[in-house]
Design goal:
mainly alpha, single chain
Length: 352
């Protein structure tokens, strides 16, 4: 049962570690198709951006006409290279953290350059707050600006709540803060109700400010306060808990991703027969999605973001991706192709 979760977890054995050479070579060859698919999908999506968007979205195109095609190719090659690193479950958690942190650094570096006067690094030349809550609050207050809500919704429909483990520009901060503690502490059972309360307050505040005709400067100050409070949670609370408290308990966009993510066909599931209730996965999860009751029910909690970190920790390999009509291995492959391709596209076009 879930209440017998172990206190210490030893090294996780891997069938690949002792696999015969022939099997290893077969596994290496099997990673070729995902690389080709990631290259093709990334190239196709970025080509659409390059051809159809009137204002150049790719940075290279903004500085040198025609150079955007070079950036398209480089980002597609990057996606193909990256999926080769993520394809082995043993290295997924490490490389997911690295690529996510890299995306955040690029995102905020472009914002910094835009702030000091290089406006080509800004999306439209108009500055918007880089705070996840503003994805929903901004359009409600302004009555316009649906680009980010549409992008967020489409992404969630494609890869579910993986927005919160691969694509959010600020979430990697919370992950890097949380991993400082070896063993994550459990978040309170009422935290989901708290999350709904935060979302309700954000929506009510945005609508109220608009109806009252509050000046944009005051609304901006309120938005900054929300963002700074979130950073405070990352800096002060997440390291103490070893859990991503900002993402799993404070961020309203995280809640929307979790709820709307149920519309995506991707799932992370625990095999009923193979699970031994050892608790290794709970120690690996930083989103609080594998509490004892979740393991006992053989289903991750609402805050699961499909990050897949728990798979490498599972002794019996009982945690797997699910997609209707696909084997667990193929479901994971398709998921990785989609999320890595979106990561490459976001790296090229995501900016404030």
């Amino acid at each position: 049962m879930g209440h017998r979760l172990v206190e210490q977890v030893g090294p996780v054995p891997s069938a690949q570690t002792t696999a015969p050479p022939g099997r290893v070579r077969k596994q290496e060859r099997s990673g070729v198709a995902p690389r080709v698919a990631a290259f093709a999908l990334s190239f196709g999506l970025l080509t659409l951006v390059q051809l159809l968007v009137a204002r150049p979205m790719l940075v290279a195109e903004r500085f040198v006409p025609g150079a955007g095609w070079i950036e398209v190719i480089l980002l597609a090659v990057y996606a193909a290279w990256l999926i080769g690193l993520l394809y082995d479950p043993r290295s997924t958690a490490l490389w997911r953290r690295r690529l996510w942190t890299f995306f955040s650094l690029i995102f905020f570096a472009q914002l910094a350059l835009g702030l000091i006067g290089v406006e080509r690094f800004l999306m439209s030349g108009k500055l918007h707050l880089p705070i996840p809550a503003m994805i929903v609050a901004g359009p409600l207050y302004r009555g316009e600006g649906l680009f980010m809500p549409i992008l967020f919704t489409v992404t969630v429909l494609l890869v579910g709540p993986a927005w919160c483990s691969y694509l959010c520009y600020i979430g990697s901060w919370d992950l890097n803060a949380a991993v400082g503690r070896k063993r994550p502490a459990q978040l309170p059972g009422w935290r989901n109700w708290f999350r709904f309360g935060i979302l309700g307050m954000i929506v009510a505040a945005a609508v109220g400010l608009r109806l009252l005709g509050v000046a944009s400067l005051a609304a901006t100050v309120a938005g900054i306060a929300v963002g700074l409070l979130g950073v405070g949670v990352m800096v002060l609370v997440s390291p103490r808990m070893g859990t991503m408290v900002h993402c799993a308990m404070y961020c309203p966009i995280g809640l929307l991703a979790d709820v709307l993510g149920k519309l995506s066909p991707f799932r992370l599931r625990i095999n009923q027969d193979a699970c031994t209730d050892c608790g290794a996965c709970a120690i690996k999860c930083r989103y609080g999605a594998l509490r004892p009751e979740h393991i006992e029910a053989r289903r991750p909690g609402l805050s699961c973001t499909l990050c897949g970190d728990c798979i490498s920790a599972c002794r019996g390999r009982s945690i797997e991706y699910g997609f209707v009509g696909l084997s667990p291995r193929m479901a994971r492959t398709v998921f990785l192709v989609l999320v890595v391709s979106l990561h490459a596209v976001f790296l090229g076009v995501a900016r404030i």
